[in-house]
Amino acid sequence: MNDRSDRHLLGEASVAVVGLGLIGGSIAAALRARQYSGNVVGVGRSRERLEGALAAGLVDEVTTESPRGSLVVYCTPVDLVAEQVRSHSETFEPGTLVTDAGSVKGAIRDAMPRLAGGVEYVGSHPLAGSEKTGYEHAAPDLFVDRVCIVTPDESTTPEARQRLERFWAFLGMRVVEMSAEQHDRVLGMTSHVPHAVASAVAGVLADAEAPFAATGFRDTTRIAAGDPAIWVPILLANRDAALAGLDRVRGRLDEFRHAVKYGDARALDRLLAEGARNREALDD
Amino acid sequence: MNDRSDRHLLGEASVAVVGLGLIGGSIAAALRARQYSGNVVGVGRSRERLEGALAAGLVDEVTTESPRGSLVVYCTPVDLVAEQVRSHSETFEPGTLVTDAGSVKGAIRDAMPRLAGGVEYVGSHPLAGSEKTGYEHAAPDLFVDRVCIVTPDESTTPEARQRLERFWAFLGMRVVEMSAEQHDRVLGMTSHVPHAVASAVAGVLADAEAPFAATGFRDTTRIAAGDPAIWVPILLANRDAALAGLDRVRGRLDEFRHAVKYGDARALDRLLAEGARNREALDD
Questions:
Q1: What is the spatial distance between Cα B283 and Cα B138, in angstroms, rounded to a whole number?
Q2: Per the CB < 8 Å rule, is B190 touching A147?
Q3: What is the pLDDT of residue A284?
Q4: Which of A103, A270, B140, B284 is the most exposed place for a label (fewest CB within 10 A)?
Q5: What pTM, to 2 d.p., does this model score?
Q6: ipTM for this model
Q7: Is B124 buried (19+), middle (13-18) or exposed (0-12) by CB count in 10 A?
Q8: Does B178 lie at the interface with A, CB-CB under 8 angstroms?
């Protein structure tokens, strides 16, 4: 956990944000809102999108080429991060810290190229976002009071660890360290499986039923609106944890099914009470 | 669908609301907010709760006995409605219109006693609510622009139909008629199954995972916080539709599982895209 008092002390000369979607755009917006004094560079493939972000005042400069920045943050789909780092790695300056905001950590680390010249990669996952996409929905307060998981390993230098923690804390986040493996197991259950479940419920809704989908249905399926281009790679990159989580949910649904089928009010009450208790323990 | 211009023309001398939970309390609050000129009677079992609602200005009078009202609305758990109507039926005045706000319609209708003396029952289901309970969370605008399903049958008089529609329209609702059977099939999929699914996802969350449950998990599981005392009877009373809906979701989850297991990006993309399309078609 961070000390919030260091928020004006982000010691990075410049921050390059690769991918100006909701997360990348919000990082840029948050840096601006928190009066980061260094340069913010937006990096992307579409010149038009980049010019839009520049015109919106999100970033100080833009490029479609290899980014310069003392800190480079990849906010692109999880299957692209390592390949982009590889293609950019020759122009990184010594001492560059590389991170990403991807929702899986093991697969990205495994695919990451070896970095030389004092360039270091440490994975991050800010637990913030929404079903919306694009920097047009960027929000400078997206990260405030949220958790950011960072996944250093035995090769990570104390300096890199400290810089990374300082960066996310600067955006208002509480930083928690864990291994990439533990991250993927936990997030499989708290994020990737709920996404598949929400999508499954939305996916089987018939057109004739849709007019009668009220608040409960809308809440339960909200994240299903997320972009498949982001979620296909996440689910595939976290295969084992996703399968294990899907099995846990399926087992539980089978218990519901059994209790409903046989009119077992007591079992149904226990199932619903456990769900209610777990949900109420979350603070919203 | 109603003509909103008739909102000041609710021709009921008095409205009795049985059960001052979220729905009953919000009906009372909405009648007040819309300057209903008749008497609003709160009916319940707990004298203390009733006095609280009276003190809060939600209702004009309260009773733990049989209610008087030209319109009596039962907002109690679905397994109690018919029995309560039975116990109250001897004191209903001629011309009383009885309805309920329960989430299942077939089982309530089947259990309903035969009513004499010009007393008529027609089922209703206002599609509004939240995971919160109790009149303390009552909101006068809970029903505005929401759909209310009413379930007349061949024995329903045109007058009862018109009075019921006028009542829900007075609260700001769009009224849709269908059979009790159709209601239960549709709501099984749009409400009862999502409740079980949300509860299943919340129910399998381990304590160690809970700190990392972010917005997506919270949205997906929000309704799981609902009161089991309300939801056990709903799921049991809509057994066939709930089982059919659970099977639809399970089949879909099995497709997700298969696609993840075998790394089938194309199948996964199709599944997620269908879910996203269905969810985006809902207007929030």
A1: 24
A2: no
A3: 66
A4: B284
A5: 0.90
A6: 0.90
A7: buried
A8: no
